Amino acid sequence: MPENGKTPVDFWFDPLCPWAWMTSRWMLEVEQLRDIELRWHVMSLAVLNEERFDELPEEYQEVLKDAWGPVRVVIAAEREHGSEVLGRLYTALGTRFHNRGEGVTREAVIGALADAELPAALVDHMDADTYDTELRASHQEGIDKVGQDVGTPVIAVPGADGEQVAFFGPVVTPAPRGEAAARLWDGTLLVASTPGFYEIKRSRTAEPDFSNL
């Protein structure tokens, strides 16, 4: 437990993923309503799927072709400017990629860097493997906590015994606000602290809804 007494919440994200984006906006709402400390980390859909890329649907393969650039920029920003920049850079990238529909382009990334008050030169890392070792390590840290059969986001919280319990999701649309957000968080902590609990799931019938973000 941090010295400030807040519940630490570690959140692994890939800025490309619209579902992780929805969950992250919910977590920011929870941060206003519950005594938590959000700590951001990078994971990578490109790394997650590289061993089975040829088995994926063609449509998803096309999505993943753009997956390396943004996470490389984010991990470079963390390495060169500290982990405290991750939250604001993620917000800037996600707003442009998802809310504004600008696409995963060099121009959108440059704009996001400006929004986050970070050097535009970081965009050059989109095509560079300078920090790929660090990227893979950050990704693996999250996966090691939750297991292989998941995607992004991964959230880790203290369990009943104080040890971290990690899970994928929750996957939700639109992002809950107000008391609905707080209730979902309370329920998430409840199931995370239940020994032997692993999964609740149903088929998705709606696309990501960014209308309240």
TrEMBL record:
CDD domains associated with the record: DsbA_family
InterPro entries in the record: Rv2466c-like, Thioredoxin-like_sf
Pfam families: Rv2466c-like
Designated name of the protein: DsbA family protein
Organism: Streptomyces katsurahamanus
